[in-house]
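Fold Annotation — chain and its backbone
Encoding — discrete vocabulary of local shapes
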Amino acid sequence: MKIYQVTSSGKQYSLSANEEVQGQISYPTWYSYRAVITTANGTWNVKTEGFWGQKLLMEKDNGVVADARINWNAQVVITFGSREYLLKVKRFLDFSFVVLNEKKEVVMNIRSQYKWTGCHVNYQLETEADFLPEELLFLAHNCNMLLAMNGDATASVAATI
């Protein structure tokens, strides 16, 4: 079992394994879906596409290497080349996630750890599968998106009470 940590320090998240940094994702502003992913393999830009910004693209050298789109079940379909995965909330109240492959087999469990003192979210990723560091960071970025969407929905419901 491989265990990775994604830790937040403001607008930047760092991916580490065995306390060794594997890469990072940086956001230009708070609550942005745009980001820059940097690993030893290079640099990728993450941006939105579509009228509502419902699709995320991870680009390198002006070519799309991964994309993510949210479906009506609030699940994210993520494609890395020819591999497709489904990221979905496993448990709503503790915001844990699961990643399924095309055969609907669990290939990764992701636990979020919300730090109230600094309003940061850290993640622990556990997998037997092989993912590149940039792919793990893109998955974490999509977890951030789902949490942000849930926060917007929670705030909307709270405002109507």
Observations:
- The CA atoms of residues 87 and 99 lie 5 Å apart.
- Helices lie at 133-160.
- The mean pLDDT is 87.
- The domain at 2-160 is CATH 2.40.160 (Porin).
